Amino acid sequence: MRKFFANKKLIIVMIILIATLSTVALSFRVRENRAAPPLVQRLANDISNVAAQVVSAPMVAVHAGYDQVGDLINTYNENQALKKNMTQLQQTQATNATLKAENKQLKKQLKLNATLSDYTQIPASVVSRQPADWENIFMINKGTHSGVKKNMPVVSGAGLIGRVLEVHNFSAKVELISTANTTADRTAVEIVNKKEQHINGIISGYDKPSETLLMTQINTKNTIEKGDTVVTSGLGGLTPKGLFVGKVTQIKDDDYGRPATVYVKPATDLNDFSVVTVISRAVQGE
Amino acid sequence: MDRRHFWLIMLWAVVALFLDGAVTYALQGVLITPRWQVAPSFLLLWLVYVCYLLPTDWRMLLAGLVLGGVYDMYYSGIIGFYALAFPAVIYGIRWIRQYLPVNGLYTVLLYFISIVVVTSGVYFGHRFLGVGGEGFVGFVSQVLWPTILVNVVLAGVLYGPCVRLLTKWQSGK
Fold first, then answer.
1. Of B15, B27, B119, the CB nearest to A55
2. Contact with chain A for residue B94, Cβ under 8 A
3. How many domains does the structure of chain B reveal?
4. CB atoms closer than 10 angstroms to residue A269
5. B contact test, residue of A128, A173, A265 with most B CBs within 10 A
6. Which of residues 86-145 of A touch B (CB under 8 A)?
7. Chain segment A69-103, per-residue pLDDT in tens
8. Cβ contact B13:B63 at 8 Å
9. Structural contact between residues B147 and B37, judged by C-beta atoms closer than 8 angstroms
10. Would an 8 Å CB–CB cutoff place A79 in contact with chain B?
């Protein structure tokens, strides 16, 4: 025993390993369970985010320029496609406005202040992305000062891309919906089929080769078809009802012929986004 | 290494730290695909070059610890993996420096070993916590191999400018 303690180097290595394991365990627990990290960590992250914005500014400018050139090349084809949708869109807008007004009036009559589908939007810019990307995390420039809270959903372009993982005063970390993190909160979703029936499930993983989300825990006899729309169900967490997630591309049945896994093509490219919107649900609750 | 040059090295290290994330974000469509995933490692590159090409300075161990801690805190929120990995790499390079000649080939070779050790170590740490993505085979073929390839090429390209800069600082200019 005396010999063991006489080996200074071994003791130092052991102390370092124990200290490292302790900080890993503690910080992991804080990240997963607490609404926000300790003040020191929040401050350090906010300062880091400012520095990251300075360093990434030229990169972001180049990225934006590249996107703009791409958009310019696609302008003609895009214009043709948009013209086709124009008439239909105007009709849908008019119908939407009427339904919105009617919905508001009915809610008033029922004395409903807010429902699961009501939310406000907090626009944010992406500053940086985790280099070793197996956790699928990126950083945004909005935090608690702008009303961002842990577990709020984040959308980009047409659909849902993730949820707020860690929130600081002026910045936040967002975990992509495609994360392989087994401890991550899962998003409750529903499929709206051709017969307007709603089938509930959760997004539980990501299939890398097909670039699709995996929807599981489905218990239904209703028919699911390719092309059906998948939206958030608003059940649990801070996610409102009706955020577009994607479209069904494949259905795998279990031994009893019931759908076990549904493959969902995300509405947004999960590797091409620059501006995101954090969604704050009107009805609060965990 | 005098105090001014030490802080200049630290400034470049901080830029490299945030450059890793900025490059990943700006080139995410190219670096992160279903077939491969490349993790830029500018900070590790800078630390390896500084520790191997400049005379021993034990302040670098503390610098590695702080930079690793910030790296963990900013990119993942789980503090400890890079905070342990960076000082370990710095210590290892300081030790091995006594036995190897200082030239371009050995510098890039040491960087190659450092990437393998750091990327694999952090990956297994994350897997242990249940936040890692790929299986082992997927990690080696889709993450580690492309990461090594791109970073070693970058290391070769950046070797000349880095050596010129460090030699200039070393000679007190």
1. B15
2. no
3. 1
4. 14
5. A128
6. 126-139
7. 877 888 888 888 888 888 778 788 888 888 888 88
8. yes
9. yes
10. no
Q: Is residue B100 part of a domain?
A: yes
Assess whether pLDDT exceeds 70 at residue A283. no
Nearest to A119 by CA among A268, A245, A241: A241
Region for residue B139 given its phi and psi (left: phi exceeds 0; alpha: psi -120 to 50; beta: otherwise) = alpha
For residue A279, the cross-strand partners are A121
Bridge partner list, A214: A205, A263
Among A286, A33, A186, CA closest to B77: A33
- In a domain, residue B114? The reply is yes
Q: Residue A114: is its pLDDT beyond 70?
A: no
Residues in chain B: 173
- Report pLDDT for B49: 94
Within 103-142 of B, beta carbons closer than 8 Å to A belong to: 119, 122-123, 125-126, 129-134
Residue B134: its chain A contacts at CB < 8 A?
A: 134, 180
- Facing residue for A180 by CB, picked from B41, B81, B132: B132
CA angle B29-B34-B37, nearest 5°?
65
From chain A, the residues in CB contact with B18 under 8 A are 48, 51-52, 54-56, 128
Q: What is the pLDDT along chain B (173 residues), one digit of tens a residue?
A: 678 888 999 999 999 999 999 999 988 888 988 888 999 999 999 999 999 998 878 889 999 999 999 999 999 889 999 999 999 999 999 999 889 988 889 999 999 999 999 999 999 888 888 877 678 888 899 899 999 999 999 999 999 999 999 888 877 65
Name the residue with higher pLDDT: A145 or A118: A145
DSSP string, A191-244: EE-TT--EEEEEEEEEETTTTEEEEE-----S---TT-EEEEE--STTPPEEEE
Residue B33 covered by a domain? no
Angle at the Cα of B6 (from A49 to B64), degrees rounded to 5? 55
> Tokens at residue A177, please?
């919906």
- Token pair of A193 as six digits: 């089929």
Q: Token digits for B136?
A: 């082992």
Q: According to the model, what pLDDT value does residue A284 have?
A: 65
The Cα–Cα gap between A186 and A231 comes to 14
Task: Give me the domain span that covers residue B118.
Answer: 3-27+39-170
Domain A35-85+117-286: assigned CATH number: 2.40.10.340
Residue B157 forms part of a structural domain: yes
Q: Hey, what are A206's tokens?
A: 């990501």
Of A48, A129, A173, the CB nearest to B28: A129
Domain ranges for chain A, please list them: 2-33, 35-85+117-286
